[in-house]
Batch of 3 targets.
Target 1
Amino acid sequence: MVQINSNYLKLKAGYLFPEIARRVKAFSDDHPGIDLIRLGIGDVTEPLPRACCEAMKAAIDAMGTSEGFHGYGPEQGYSWLREAIAKQDFQNRGCKVSAEEIFISDGSKCDSSNILDILGEGNRIAVTDPVYPVYVDSNVMAGRTGNAAENGCYESLTYLPINATNNFEAQLPKEAADLIYLCFPNNPTGAVASKSQLERWVKYAREHNALILFDAAYEAFIQDPHLPHSIYEIEGARECAIEFRSFSKNAGFTGTRCAFTVVPKGLTGKAADGKQVELWQLWNRRQSTKFNGVNYVVQRGAEAVYSPEGQAQTKALVSFYMENAAIIRSELMTAGFTVYGGEHAPYVWIKTPEGLDSWGFFDHLLEQAFVVGTPGSGFGAAGEGYFRLSAFNSRVNVQSAMTRITSL
Ligand SMILES: *Cc1c(COP(=O)(O)O)cnc(C)c1O
């Protein structure tokens, strides 16, 4: 009889988004005709930048010609894209990242999960609480955790609480961690890391021979030019960090799919026999065996992000969402809410009003304002008492949602 991967049975049966969908459906069924505004999901809403569309159209046309046809591409991605990324995202910011160290993929969600393929079973893992659920669930699936406790926390994972008390800056783990997931700008709290904050993490990782998995999917939303966009802006990070980037949020590629992961040469981990092994080699091997690259057309679309037009258009896209975030912040603050984030990230993290927990506030907004958000407790036990609103929506919807909430 075939056996299953029983680790999947440890998963808290997708409690967040299915539960939101259930409550929204129940409300809509009872109140037909009410138009709900969804500020809950982390998906973009604006169309693709013109430059990306043009590049993809030209690439499709080329694919229909004998001269321009492309079959299997390099598993690591085309060198013209890897070079544009290395130069414009890293070298221009003073980071020593080469094209060879960039692996193009179809998403940061998959990369941040798949990376566990090349990492050992015995690593002690640290995540923030609240956290992007993918980091936790992929470790559960890979058998790197124990069972979930009553409050949803998994045994043998180290949770680092982030909340208003510590200014959404996690303490360094008390027990040694080997693998640390960091996400800046942060989903869900909208917090951003200063250079000194990242320096503390890099110092910790180097002292403990730990690996930082740095998710920078929202780096394009950073507004303050002094804030770091990449972990590699920190001295020594090449010896202790892998970085995940994505075109999903800066260029609206959530449905188009393109991302990349940076694995520095010379970054090593320890094998069972004690030898130091380069992670680049393992990831290269993993991708070559299990992945066949992102399609040519989409890679041409991603390349167009780095053209002068693409740069201007993606900047405008990000500004549009950040204006939404500013509207959400200022309207809610004026109405007396305590809000965090939303200044360098498309998420505003709200303290729920006195007497309402995360789900209580969810129901309140759904039933009274017809606005759907995301309960903070869905991102982890320490997210209780908070609520996430996303800036990914049309201006009209954001403005009406704010009018509805502030006139409650
Ligand atoms: C949206 C998002 C990503 C991007 O994922 P893709 O698979 O590239 O679309 C990565 N990390 C976080 C925290 C996100 O919210």
Target 2
Amino acid sequence: MKEAKFGTKSIWAGEKEQLAFGATQVPVVHSVSFGYDDMDEWYDVAIGKKPGHIYGRNTNPTVQAFEEKIRILEGAEASTSFSTGMAAISNTLGTLLFPGDRVVSIKDTYGGTNKIFTEFLPKQQVEVVLCDTGDHEAIEKEVAKGCKVLYLESPTNPTVKVTDIRRMAAAGKSVGATVVVDNTFATPVNQNPLELGADLVIHSATKFLGGHADALGGAVCGEKSLVEAIYHYREINGATLDPMAAYLLLRGMKTLKLRIDQQNKNAAEIAEYLKTFDMVEAVYYPGLPEHPNHDIAKEQMNGFGGMLSFAVKGGVETVRDLLPKLTYANRAANLGSVETVVGPSRTTSHVECTPAERAAMGIPEGLIRYSAGIEDIEDLKEDLAQAFQALHTYAKN
Ligand SMILES: *Cc1c(COP(=O)(O)O)cnc(C)c1O
């Protein structure tokens, strides 16, 4: 039979092995451990000679279904899971980096990731070099000096900058670095970093994969020996994905293709629409032809994603007045959910940074991150229109 298409795989992949009692849905196995009457069988499972489960911190059937689904969707050899996206990132870096090692990354990584680079890794004598996002020559120059890990994120949070993954992966490979890409914003629907040459793909499953803002989780996919080393670090350090969360993420992922297709469309239309408001200073979306990395995005992405951001005139004051006027948007820190979510970057992705640090990263204080939901586009547009209109009326009084 021909290999199934993405939408079909997101529904069927990874589940069959975990079905019991003729159930058509993966059960939530809430058992901390798994018992054996046969001591030899127990031993064989414990040393990995036989498939099975021993203890919930290591493996669990529901969690395994989640790992298998994301593995197949990313087209990876192996995968493992984590309690959160940050656990996926910190466990991956913790597995790969030792005192004296050097890691090259970009300035615009997710706020938490940026903290690992600026606060924690230097304390462990790991040299961290953060290049200007989008400055491919600068990244290549730093990578050429030698590094253990090249860590990328594309598109970035919140100004949706795009890095040429194929080009950077080639640079990383040439010095023997492990190339890691955070694919949270794009999802495997829109981008396949492994196909572009990356060694490992990371997800905050909390966002688009789960898609319903009701479960935290993370995943790493890639080459088997790398993933096994990361899994080992995680099983000992204990950042395990909970079975209930795994179930919610699995259920969310069945509609991944449908949701992302709609979010791609909504975000593209909102980005164009925002440009028509005089209160809007700038719109950031990789799908806009004027986006500085639009050509790279077009080349390496199947869709431009559901995330955009825009800067409003009047900075923080305008943000404070505008956002509460929106009806169909949660004002919250998450993203990638079925409902539209908005928030100022200074309180969401980059709350850990000082205003000076945010300015250095090119994040205006009046920047609003907009995660397009799957609502009807007419409603989202009308909602923005009435909010800007109310802002005008208010300004005139
Ligand atoms: C949210 C996010 C993370 C962290 O994920 P958590 O599940 O919140 O720990 C990492 N990378 C990106 C791009 C994110 O948006």
Target 3
Amino acid sequence: MRPLVCEIRLNYLRENYLYLKKVHGNKLLAVVKANAYGHGAVQCAQALHDIADGFAVAFVQEAIELRENGITKPIVLLEGALETTEYAEIDKYDLWTVVHNQTQLENLLAYNWQKPATVWLKMDSGMHRVGFFPHNFAAAYTALSQSNKVANIVKMTHFACADEDETGMTEMQIEAFDLACEGLDGEESIANSAAMLRFPETHRDWGRAGLALYGIDPMSKFETEYAIKPVMRLSSKIFSERVLQPHEPIGYGASFYTKRSTRVGVVACGYADGYPRCTPSDTPVAINGARSRVIGRVSMDMMTVDLHDNHFKIGDEVELFGDVVNINELASAAGTITYEILCNMKRAKRIYVK
Ligand SMILES: *Cc1c(COP(=O)(O)O)cnc(C)c1O
């Protein structure tokens, strides 16, 4: 069997949830959209079910998959209904839907609900992707609250820069949100992972934890200051090796030349497994727990690493990311973000650790 293994430590997931819930103080949604950021939505939701206040997914099919696998807690659809036909499913499966524009609002009110809906009404407080502008928010709120089709409205917004240093943008968004919500009662939800960790004033009725729930520092730190542990660990093995003389090329494009006599190990993992192809030479890996590095270009199914220490041999374990190599380190070397790498973990064999 190919030795590439994607371990999902569900025990860490639970610990991370409980920690973030303590930080946030109030209720906390576990964001499990995009197959729980590549970790497996059903497995993660089931592992959290007894402790989670609710879950969030992007769209209705993701929510139905959870309902069909025994998830009975609240589920929020972060993108809301994408087609009018989805209101019947939202109604049937008892889902909470975001309403972020006038079309969604009108379609929701036009639908003949069996039971009154719970709506998360989204404000665009500055990210300018979706949501009602602050000056239109009260009107949208009133239209929903005056309808007998709506039981409950949660006011929400989303931050553009909560994971960035000193932009002032988050403070500005909080102020815009609070100002536009004046006089509108009901629950509020504004914090994503970065905001709940860094801005206590974002702790409202519901937090929405994604990245930090999976144990990744949203500030892209290689060593986090928060009590979260990486849930996913990707490891494989060396399945071939050779010694190259100085000034010899390795791999596609001959992008790397040895400087000295070099033992090269070939690892069963490539970009088809979601390991970024643009990862440059010198990016860290850990062989039997000791840090080494990628050399040469990442291929589809394999990659080459420096075995400079003679103790490494065929069959030795290589951690691509997880405990020794933080995934933020890999993402930074590859010029991407951890979210993207996690979501691309679709091929490696899964092992769920309870
Ligand atoms: C994905 C998402 C989140 C979670 O964000 P993280 O940065 O992963 O914590 C929260 N809110 C909304 C609206 C989202 O789409």
